Known about the structure:
The chain is about 0% helix and about 60% strand. The chain is built from no helices and 11 strands. Strands 2, 4, 5, 6, 9, 10 and 11 form a 7-stranded mixed sheet that branches.
Amino acid sequence: QxxxxxxxxxxxxxxxxLGLSCAASGSIFTINAMGWYRQAPGKQRELVxxxxxxxxxxxxxxxxxxxxxxxxxxxxxVYLQMNSLKPEDTGVYYCNADAKIRxxxxxxxxxxxxxxxxxxx
Length: 121
């Protein structure tokens, strides 16, 4: 199986920065897209940023210019650098990977456990 282990997260004041990382491990054949999602209290989970295996990125409008997603394919790791944080960025951030297990033909969606990001005003 595929496991996603996240690190980072915490409490930061508005205007500050925080970096998240997520490493995928297990019986991985290949990973297509990876991404970050977040869920604020009382709201639906939303896409924050995604990145393909070739490096193409996509961001939700509210974080453009402030957040940067990147990945290291050799390490099966995706990163999210968050700058100029705002209180509305507060939420649980989840790592996601579209991956294929070795010797199995099906791609599946895998999720990390989530990490809390709190931005105070």
